[in-house]
Description:
alpha/beta, six-stranded parallel beta sheet, 18 helices, 44% helix, 13% strand
Amino acid sequence: xxxxxxxxxxxxxxxxxxxxxxxxxxxxxxxxxxxxxxxxxxxxxxxxxxxxxxxxxxxxxxxxxxxxxxxxxxxxxxxxxxxxxxxxxxxxxxxxxxxxxxxxxxxxxxxxxxxxxxxxxxxxxxxxxxxxxxxxxxxxxxxxxxxxxxxxxxxxxxxxxxxxxxxxxxxxxxxxxxxxxxxxxxxxxxxxxxxxxxxxxxxxxxxxxxxxxxxxxxxxxxxxxxxxxxxxxxxxxxxxxxxxxxxxxxxxxxxxxxxxxxxxxxxxxxxxxxxxxxxxxxxxxxxxxxxxxxxxxxxxxxxxxxxxxxxxxxxxxxxxxxxxxxxxxxxxxxxxxxxxxxxxxxxxxxxxxxxxxxxxxxxxxxxxxxxxxxxxxxxxxxxxxxxxxxxxxxxxxxxxxxxxxxxxxxxxxxxxxxxxxxxxxxxxxxxxxxxxxxxxxxxxxxxxxxxxxxxxx
Length: 457
């Protein structure tokens, strides 16, 4: 059995990571940095070559430095096939995509294919291998779908094959820190042997390990994301009340979050939640409950409330400039949040759609996400409006002759707002959906400032 080395105690198992996207690459590099020998594999040869060259395929603070350091350490290396992965590692983490499919269900085809490939590569071997599902899958999938498929294809049973669940809790924009120093490690196992293996690979991580069944671990992931989506939506809905009755949503939520029973995280109002997880996971969880005959009130309405918040953001722009037809609008921030180039479920898509369908001409800028946003926008533009949105390489180009600027993602660059930016605009109005520009700078910048969740003075 391939094992890593340690100066004291039993050898640390070698980790394999299948899928080197957002979550897989951060996961693999975190194991490597924690002195666990790690091999990675991805079906995309161009991605493998890029990672080998020390180039990260995604925008994430700290990731380029981490990748280069771990490649130089020789603890992390990339292999070119499933056979190399499963025979070179003791514990194999499946970090494969589970995108949203029709009707809200997750699409298991990528992970099914990965399980078939891994199972075929495992066939004929006698060494014990633990396969860990790190992908987000609905409760019951590891035991009910992946285990029988893996056992059938690999022709193995529990004597030489283990299956476990180990959901990830990485926040984009903070993935490196979250991967290296998780708050908790949730594992779902079916045997004491598998629990020991996972304790061994995580022994250098300063976090408690919570051991439960695979189905319970899967449910922890969905319940956590659903709860965070509820917190965001709560803050968003309160923000609309604050605008009417008076006050500032950030001051209100700061005091609400000071209650230890509630906590301050995920109480920052904005144009709605986005990203790869919340919308997909909430829909999948609601759909699974419906299949089991469970009727939910709160969670079943989250998506509707999220859309309403984005439409409210559009209404703020309309209120600031009047009729949208013919107006020039600078849309600042295309990623679903600052600090990432990920545009999945970004509120910039429905916001831009509302604006161009209202007759506006939109110029857009983002420090990292323009390429990703452009690719998706050009695939599904609003009917007849594909040319109503153009992309700019600088903030200055985006703001020139604009009637209003809309901050959708709170990148640090936008927080600086120098007075020269204001002078480029036809009308010095900023609709700040994230309250990104600090109050002193609003005055120095000479802008008419409208903040989501802030009552007009």
